[in-house]
Design brief:
Elements lengths: L7 H10 L5 H8 L4 H14 L8 H25 L21 H16 L5 H21 L5 H21 L5 H18 L3 H22 L9 H20 L4 H17 L6
Helix pairs in contact: 2-6, 3-4, 4-5, 4-7, 4-8, 4-9, 5-6, 5-7, 6-7, 8-9, 9-11, 10-11
InterPro entries: PAP2/HPO (IPR000326), PAP2/HPO_sf (IPR036938)
Enzyme class: hydrolase
EC number: 3.1.3.-
Length: 274
């Protein structure tokens, strides 16, 4: 797929029109669709949402399965298409890796779409409208920063939307199916891309989350409240450790095991009764 096929002119026009002073603003705003945002806010909604009446623990787990599964889908599809990003002359910030589809757009569509489908606040039409607005907004920030072509963000939004629709339907009766799909997607990513950092991290995290959900259901902990004082240090420590393994190239064994431990802990915290 050539840059022309991916609507290079749109990216060049938008990125070229953003004043230098606004680039840091877009860098902050694009974080709303980043992997780290999704894997931080998703577990927080799952853990603390039920006791605040936002959704049930079961639906929180469905959202979590959608979120981590979508990240595995990103790793798989980027490896499958292996399409480059716009050239450095167009990008307003340094970004590496493949460009198609946009991971931010895919993750945003899955996460905000999952929130719209599962939250028990406001009415459904407003939730879906807000989700659509967030997806478009995140996609726009990627174009404005010059790190994706139009086709990348459109494909990502469609992919994330399709994925959340499938998993919401699949998990209606059994939540574990969602985590199983996430694991299988990560396995496919390792098989296609090879045992490199991102696929191994995705596999570790999804396997850990599946194991954590098994513990929650096995121990009958669905209705247990989670203490913020207990959960936040665990989330910060293990989430930070998992991020550091990728940042400092810790080795595949350390990346896989740390992400797996984080996945187990994030999902199984309700087992630790308040």
């Amino acid at each position: 797929m050539s840059a022309l096929d991916r609507s290079a002119g749109v990216t060049e026009a938008l990125a070229g029109s953003v004043p230098e002073a606004l680039v840091p603003v877009f860098v902050v705003l694009t974080f709303l669709g980043s992997t780290w945002f999704v894997v931080t806010v998703g577990p927080a909604v799952y853990l603390f949402g039920p006791q605040r009446g936002w959704l049930s623990r079961r639906d929180g787990a469905r959202l979590l399965a959608v979120s981590i599964g979508a990240l595995a889908v990103v790793v798989l599809t980027k490896g499958l298409f292996a399409e480059p990003r716009p050239p450095a002359s167009v990008m307003r910030i340094a970004e590496h890796g493949n460009g198609f589809p946009s991971g931010h757009a895919t993750g945003a569509a899955a996460f905000y779409g999952g929130l719209a489908a599962l939250l028990d606040v406001s009415d459904r039409a407003r939730r879906y409208a807000a989700a659509a607005g967030m997806i478009v907004f995140v996609a726009f920030t990627r174009l404005a920063l010059g790190v994706h072509y139009l086709a990348d963000v459109v494909a990502g939004a469609l992919l994330g939307t399709a994925f959340v629709a499938v998993l919401i339907a699949l998990t209606r009766r059994r939540v574990g199916y969602g985590f199983a799909v996430a694991v299988l997607t990560a396995v496919a990513a390792v098989g296609l891309v090879g045992p490199t950092e991102d696929p191994v991290a995705a596999l570790g995290g999804t396997v850990g989350a599946l194991a954590g959900w098994w513990l929650v259901t096995r121990r009958g902990a669905l209705l247990n409240d989670v203490s913020v004082k207990t959960a936040l240090p665990v989330l910060a420590a293990l989430g930070g450790a998992a991020a550091l393994t990728l940042h400092f190239d810790a080795g595949l064994a350390a990346i896989g095991s740390t992400h797996s431990l984080a996945g187990v802990a994030f999902v199984a915290l309700p087992v630790l009764r308040r």
